[in-house]
Design a protein that fits this description.
Distance between the termini: 136 Å
Protein name: Internalin protein
Largest sheet: 2 strands, antiparallel
Mean pLDDT: 78
Region (Disordered): 1-21
Keywords: Coiled coil
Biased composition (Basic and acidic residues): 1-15
Coiled coil: 57-120
Protein backbone atom coordinates (compact mmCIF):
# COMPACT_ATOMS: atom_id res chain seq x y z
CA UNK A 1 0.00 0.00 0.00
CA UNK A 2 1.49 3.31 -1.05
CA UNK A 3 1.15 6.48 1.00
CA UNK A 4 1.31 10.06 -0.03
CA UNK A 5 2.02 12.76 2.51
CA UNK A 6 0.28 16.09 2.10
CA UNK A 7 0.26 19.21 4.18
CA UNK A 8 -2.20 21.99 3.70
CA UNK A 9 -0.39 25.28 3.86
CA UNK A 10 -1.93 28.64 4.56
CA UNK A 11 -4.62 27.24 6.85
CA UNK A 12 -5.25 29.01 10.11
CA UNK A 13 -4.55 26.91 13.11
CA UNK A 14 -7.71 27.34 15.10
CA UNK A 15 -6.32 25.52 18.10
CA UNK A 16 -3.58 28.15 18.44
CA UNK A 17 -5.90 31.14 18.37
CA UNK A 18 -6.01 33.71 21.18
CA UNK A 19 -9.23 32.22 22.57
CA UNK A 20 -7.74 28.75 22.84
CA UNK A 21 -4.60 30.14 24.58
CA UNK A 22 -6.83 31.90 27.09
CA UNK A 23 -8.84 28.70 27.62
CA UNK A 24 -5.66 26.69 28.24
CA UNK A 25 -4.37 29.41 30.59
CA UNK A 26 -7.63 29.25 32.54
CA UNK A 27 -7.32 25.48 32.80
CA UNK A 28 -3.75 25.71 34.08
CA UNK A 29 -4.77 28.19 36.80
CA UNK A 30 -7.28 25.77 38.30
CA UNK A 31 -6.19 24.89 41.83
CA UNK A 32 -7.49 21.33 41.90
CA UNK A 33 -5.23 20.19 38.98
CA UNK A 34 -2.05 18.33 39.78
CA UNK A 35 1.28 19.18 38.18
CA UNK A 36 1.01 16.03 36.04
CA UNK A 37 -2.32 17.10 34.62
CA UNK A 38 -1.05 20.60 33.94
CA UNK A 39 1.96 19.13 32.10
CA UNK A 40 -0.32 16.86 30.01
CA UNK A 41 -2.52 19.84 29.11
CA UNK A 42 0.53 21.88 28.02
CA UNK A 43 1.88 19.00 25.90
CA UNK A 44 -1.51 18.49 24.22
CA UNK A 45 -1.76 22.22 23.54
CA UNK A 46 1.74 22.32 22.02
CA UNK A 47 0.93 19.33 19.83
CA UNK A 48 -2.24 20.97 18.63
CA UNK A 49 -0.32 24.11 17.61
CA UNK A 50 2.13 22.19 15.41
CA UNK A 51 1.31 21.95 11.65
CA UNK A 52 -0.65 18.84 10.83
CA UNK A 53 0.34 16.28 8.31
CA UNK A 54 -2.43 14.28 6.67
CA UNK A 55 -1.57 10.93 5.19
CA UNK A 56 -3.76 9.83 2.29
CA UNK A 57 -3.36 6.55 0.54
CA UNK A 58 -3.16 6.48 -3.25
CA UNK A 59 -6.39 4.47 -3.32
CA UNK A 60 -8.17 7.09 -1.23
CA UNK A 61 -6.74 9.79 -3.46
CA UNK A 62 -8.03 7.97 -6.55
CA UNK A 63 -11.43 7.53 -4.91
CA UNK A 64 -11.52 11.24 -4.07
CA UNK A 65 -10.53 12.14 -7.64
CA UNK A 66 -13.24 9.80 -8.96
CA UNK A 67 -15.77 11.40 -6.60
CA UNK A 68 -14.67 14.87 -7.69
CA UNK A 69 -15.08 13.80 -11.32
CA UNK A 70 -18.56 12.45 -10.56
CA UNK A 71 -19.41 15.68 -8.77
CA UNK A 72 -18.22 17.67 -11.79
CA UNK A 73 -20.32 15.42 -14.06
CA UNK A 74 -23.31 15.99 -11.78
CA UNK A 75 -22.74 19.76 -11.88
CA UNK A 76 -22.53 19.60 -15.68
CA UNK A 77 -25.74 17.56 -15.88
CA UNK A 78 -27.43 19.95 -13.47
CA UNK A 79 -26.36 22.85 -15.69
CA UNK A 80 -27.71 21.03 -18.76
CA UNK A 81 -30.99 20.32 -16.97
CA UNK A 82 -31.32 23.99 -15.99
CA UNK A 83 -30.66 25.03 -19.60
CA UNK A 84 -33.23 22.51 -20.83
CA UNK A 85 -35.78 23.78 -18.32
CA UNK A 86 -35.06 27.34 -19.44
CA UNK A 87 -35.54 26.35 -23.10
CA UNK A 88 -38.76 24.49 -22.27
CA UNK A 89 -40.09 27.54 -20.42
CA UNK A 90 -39.19 29.79 -23.36
CA UNK A 91 -40.87 27.42 -25.82
CA UNK A 92 -43.85 27.22 -23.48
CA UNK A 93 -44.15 31.00 -23.44
CA UNK A 94 -43.85 31.12 -27.23
CA UNK A 95 -46.50 28.41 -27.59
CA UNK A 96 -48.73 30.22 -25.13
CA UNK A 97 -48.43 33.48 -27.07
CA UNK A 98 -49.12 31.67 -30.38
CA UNK A 99 -52.18 29.98 -28.88
CA UNK A 100 -53.42 33.33 -27.54
CA UNK A 101 -52.95 34.89 -30.99
CA UNK A 102 -54.86 32.03 -32.63
CA UNK A 103 -57.67 32.35 -30.08
CA UNK A 104 -57.87 36.10 -30.74
CA UNK A 105 -58.01 35.45 -34.51
CA UNK A 106 -60.78 32.88 -34.02
CA UNK A 107 -62.73 35.28 -31.83
CA UNK A 108 -62.38 37.99 -34.49
CA UNK A 109 -63.59 35.54 -37.16
CA UNK A 110 -66.55 34.55 -34.99
CA UNK A 111 -67.48 38.19 -34.38
CA UNK A 112 -67.16 38.95 -38.11
CA UNK A 113 -69.31 35.92 -39.01
CA UNK A 114 -71.86 36.92 -36.37
CA UNK A 115 -72.10 40.40 -37.89
CA UNK A 116 -72.49 38.89 -41.38
CA UNK A 117 -75.25 36.57 -40.16
CA UNK A 118 -77.03 39.43 -38.39
CA UNK A 119 -76.84 41.52 -41.58
CA UNK A 120 -78.17 38.56 -43.62
CA UNK A 121 -81.03 37.99 -41.19
CA UNK A 122 -81.82 41.72 -41.19
CA UNK A 123 -81.92 41.87 -44.99
CA UNK A 124 -84.03 38.69 -45.20
CA UNK A 125 -86.46 39.96 -42.58
CA UNK A 126 -86.69 43.35 -44.27
CA UNK A 127 -87.34 41.69 -47.66
CA UNK A 128 -90.02 39.46 -46.15
CA UNK A 129 -91.54 42.46 -44.37
CA UNK A 130 -91.71 44.40 -47.62
CA UNK A 131 -93.33 41.41 -49.34
CA UNK A 132 -95.83 41.04 -46.50
CA UNK A 133 -96.58 44.77 -46.53
CA UNK A 134 -97.24 44.67 -50.27
CA UNK A 135 -99.44 41.58 -49.79
CA UNK A 136 -101.23 43.29 -46.92
CA UNK A 137 -101.75 46.32 -49.11
CA UNK A 138 -103.23 44.14 -51.87
CA UNK A 139 -105.38 42.32 -49.31
CA UNK A 140 -106.48 45.63 -47.82
CA UNK A 141 -107.46 46.92 -51.25
CA UNK A 142 -109.27 43.66 -52.02
CA UNK A 143 -111.02 43.83 -48.67
CA UNK A 144 -112.06 47.43 -49.32
CA UNK A 145 -113.34 46.41 -52.75
CA UNK A 146 -115.23 43.47 -51.27
CA UNK A 147 -116.58 45.64 -48.49
CA UNK A 148 -117.79 48.20 -51.00
CA UNK A 149 -119.37 45.41 -53.07
CA UNK A 150 -120.96 43.92 -49.96
CA UNK A 151 -122.32 47.30 -48.94
CA UNK A 152 -123.75 47.72 -52.42
CA UNK A 153 -125.30 44.24 -52.31
CA UNK A 154 -126.76 44.89 -48.86
CA UNK A 155 -128.17 48.23 -49.92
CA UNK A 156 -129.48 46.74 -53.13
CA UNK A 157 -130.94 43.77 -51.28
CA UNK A 158 -132.54 46.04 -48.72
CA UNK A 159 -134.10 48.16 -51.40
CA UNK A 160 -135.40 45.07 -53.25
CA UNK A 161 -136.80 43.63 -50.03
CA UNK A 162 -138.44 46.90 -49.19
CA UNK A 163 -139.98 47.01 -52.61
CA UNK A 164 -141.24 43.42 -52.39
CA UNK A 165 -142.65 44.00 -48.92
CA UNK A 166 -144.28 47.16 -50.08
CA UNK A 167 -146.11 45.25 -52.78
CA UNK A 168 -146.68 42.16 -50.62
CA UNK A 169 -144.43 39.77 -52.50
CA UNK A 170 -142.45 37.33 -50.34
CA UNK A 171 -138.90 36.39 -51.41
CA UNK A 172 -137.36 33.66 -49.19
CA UNK A 173 -133.94 33.62 -50.96
CA UNK A 174 -133.14 37.12 -49.63
CA UNK A 175 -133.61 35.99 -46.04
CA UNK A 176 -131.41 32.95 -46.61
CA UNK A 177 -128.52 35.11 -47.90
CA UNK A 178 -128.66 37.41 -44.86
CA UNK A 179 -128.81 34.55 -42.35
CA UNK A 180 -125.76 32.88 -43.86
CA UNK A 181 -123.59 35.92 -43.14
Amino acid sequence: MAFEQTTKEGEKNEEGSADSVADVGALLNLSNLSAEHKKAILEAFEKSRQPKTVVITVEEDEKMKAMEKKMEDLRQKEKEVKETIKKVKEKGEQSKSKINEEIEKLIEKIIKRKKELIALVDSTVSTKLQMMQSLLSVLDKSFQSLQNTYTYVVIRTYSIRTMFEKYGIAQPWIYRCESSR
